[in-house]
Write a structure and sequence with these properties.
Elements (H helix, E strand, L loop, with lengths): L1 E7 L1 H5 L3 H11 L2 E8 L3 H7 L9 H8 L4 E8 L2 H9 L12 H5 L8 E3 L3 H11 L13 H4 L2 H4 L1
Antiparallel strand pairs: 1-3, 1-4, 2-3
Bound molecules: adenosine-5'-diphosphate.
The site of adenosine-5'-diphosphate has 9 residues, from loops.
Length: 154
């Protein structure tokens, strides 16, 4: 099973869509391994968006992402990284496919409701950045026997 980091962004928080966004992941069958509300500060934003530090829109991302607290989630499942990226849709919400979170709920490139780690390697680093070991939970989820076939569960 893989783990990935999701952030429910300030636009979703402000619009009262945090539950809707979370429920999309839950309904898909992803397991919540960790959840917390957090106010992103400059140091965390610089680390999280280091790949965009030289982009002209970097200051506006930092302003936007710190406008309200966000909800950080660590979600678990088979190929969770790829599955969550697909559920989110492409970065620009106007171009995101209907059926995706961004495609159904957003109109903006920046205010696109949700962050999801973009690779297995990034996910490991991002989960570790946002969650301490003791904030992540392994617990029985009997429904797993119906979510996956026996040969998929490993
Ligand atoms: P994604 O979140 O889809 O993986 P990126 O890692 O490229 O996309 O960008 C991180 C976030 O920065 C995006 O989700 C979006 O909020 C913001 N962003 C990306 N590109 C732009 C842009 N051209 N203008 C404004 N904001 C942007």
């Amino acid at each position: 099973m893989e783990r990935t980091l999701i952030l429910i962004k300030p636009d979703a928080m402000a619009r009262g869509l945090a539950g809707t966004v979370l429920s999309r992941f839950e309904a898909k069958g992803l397991k919540i391994a960790g959840v917390k509300m957090i106010q992103l500060d400059e140091a965390l934003l610089k680390a999280h968006y280091s790949h965009l530090a030289d982009k002209p829109f970097f200051p506006t991302i930092c302003e936007f992402m710190s406008r309200t607290p966000v909800i950080a989630l660590c979600l678990e499942g088979l190929e969770a990284v790829e599955v969550c990226r697909s559920l989110c849709g492409v970065t620009n919400s106007r171009k995101a496919a209907p059926g995706t979170i961004r495609g159904d709920l957003g109109m903006s490139m920046q205010a696109n409701l949700v962050h999801a780690s973009d690779s297995v390697e990034t996910a490991k680093a991002e989960v570790a950045r946002f969650f301490k070991d003791e904030e992540l939970f392994g617990y029985e989820q009997p429904v797993i026997n119906f979510l996956y076939a026996s040969d998929e569960r490993g």
